[in-house]
Design brief:
447 residues, 12% strand, alpha/beta, Rossmann fold, 13 strands, 8-stranded mixed sheet, elongated
């Protein structure tokens, strides 16, 4: 057995005995749940993040991610199975390293892999023989081999021989109580046979089901395919919504009836635009990479155009309804956006269409405020820094009565929608919130 084979065998044995030390880089919506899942499976986990505020929360046993209960975090930390640091020099202590960092788009809608590249350079400083490095961030096919591997090989070590590379895309769904990290099947792949076996062994010890695929490129493509599928189908119902509006047909009634067919149909629902860390972004990673192969992605790009245009459609509907119902111009109206988060019951504003709605309304001269029980203040964002500091207005009768119109952009549970329709003269409902709750109000307009 060669030295390299012996290193791989030692790491495999350590993983199987749960004696391998696990490092998780990026303790956000993906990294912290993964860290807790690995710790609860019996591994000792060291988390890495650049945010000292997260370190303080972890030391105090406070979770800042809804999917991780305070009690779970506190218990794993107190037991010594989980700790966290901002000191990336400690990466050398870890046998398995999972990278869970953002992969956003640039202002020109091109992939921004700076977080992945910078993280690899952090690992480079302490990289040693026998380590397994796995990327979980969503990206285009080829990233693991074409971006990560060359950076790490600057160490003089060789991927697949001295260290091992893998890809296993995250599949988190914030706010979904039906699934957690350990119960979501995990796609796994490695750069070579040894890496593939190690990646499968690690995740097989952490989650209930692993789904091995033949290459890291295939695994990267699986993740993109899942989210392109959703983006395209949402674009379809968004376009149908506009068409059916002109015909006087309710798209929500159409979808409700269509989904009674037990085969050949899957319901998707329209909305004010796309939000979240995956669906609005991932398709553009594929369209960008496809240009390298001189392959057009017209279908995907058209879906992106339709979904991106939805906030403007909502604002246009609001302007029409204000003029028709109240005889008032949008520029002289006070508008309340209900829900800043990109989906209900989570405090997550990544790519939220509510931010675009707010910006468009301000551009057209409206006086705009928002209410969101999960988001007290607008944080700094890459594209909407000018909105930073705006605060959620109180949900009181006196406050609501001061608005001309409200837009239901995010249908959080626990909000008194009947009260809104009672006190606000015009309500634009982008989520069929009133229909789903059986609330009848003549001043509610679907959009």
């Amino acid at each position: 057995m060669s030295v390299q084979q012996e290193k791989a065998a030692q790491l495999l044995a350590a993983i199987e005995a749960k004696q391998a030390r696990v490092g998780i880089i990026g303790l956000g919506y993906v990294g912290l749940p993964l860290a807790m899942t690995a710790a609860r499976a019996g591994f000792t986990v060291l988390g890495f993040d650049i945010d000292p505020g997260k370190m303080a929360d972890i030391e105090a046993g406070r979770s800042y991610i809804d999917a991780v209960p305070h009690a779970v975090l506190a218990a794993e930390h107190a037991a010594g199975r989980f700790s966290a640091t901002t000191d990336f020099a400690r990466l050398g202590e870890c046998d398995v390293i999972a990278i869970c960092v953002p992969t956003p788009l640039t202002r020109h809608r091109e992939p921004d892999l700076s977080y992945v590249s910078n993280t690899c350079r952090q690992i480079l400083g302490t990289l040693r023989q026998g380590q397994l490095i796995v990327l979980e961030s969503t990206t285009y096919p080829g990233t693991t081999e074409e971006v990560m591997k060359p950076i790490l090989e600057e160490s003089g070590l060789v991927g697949g021989t001295d260290f091992y590379l893998g890809y296993s895309p995250e599949r988190e769904d914030p706010g979904n109580r039906d699934f957690e990290t350990s119960t979501i099947p995990k796609i796994v792949a490695g750069d070579g046979e040894a890496a593939a076996a190690l990646v499968a062994a690690f995740y097989g010890a952490v989650v209930k089901t692993v789904v091995p695929v033949s290459s890291t490129r295939t695994a990267e493509a699986v993740k993109l395919t899942e989210n392109v599928f959703r983006a395209v189908n949402i674009a379809l119902v968004n376009e149908l919504k506009i068409v059916y509006e002109k015909m006087g047909i309710d798209i929500w009634e159409v979808v409700a009836a269509a989904k009674t067919k037990p085969f050949g149909y899957m319901p998707f629902y329209p909305g004010p635009g796309l939000g979240g860390h995956c669906i609005p972004i991932d398709p553009f990673y594929l369209t960008w990479k496809s240009r390298e192969y001189d392959q057009p992605t017209r279908f995907i790009e058209l879906a992106g155009e339709i979904n991106t245009a939805m906030p403007r459609h909502v604002v246009d509907r609001l302007a029409e309804a204000l003029d028709r119902s109240l005889g008032k111009a949008l520029s002289r109206s006070r508008v309340l956006i209900l829900g800043l988060a990109y989906k209900k019951n989570v405090p997550d504003i990544r790519e939220s269409p509510s931010l675009k709605l707010m910006e468009l309304l301000i551009e057209r001269g409206a006086d705009v405020a928002y209410h969101d029980p999960f988001i007290e203040e607008v944080p700094r964002t890459r594209e909407y820094g000018h909105l930073k500091g705006r605060r959620s207005v109180p949900f009181t009768a006196e406050e609501l009565a001061g608005f001309d119109a409200a837009i239901v952009a995010t249908d959080h549970d626990g909000v008194d929608y009947a009260k809104i329709a009672e006190l606000v003269p015009l309500v634009i409902d982008t989520r069929n919130t009133y229909g789903f709750r059986g609330i009848t109000a003549e001043n509610v307009v679907k959009a």
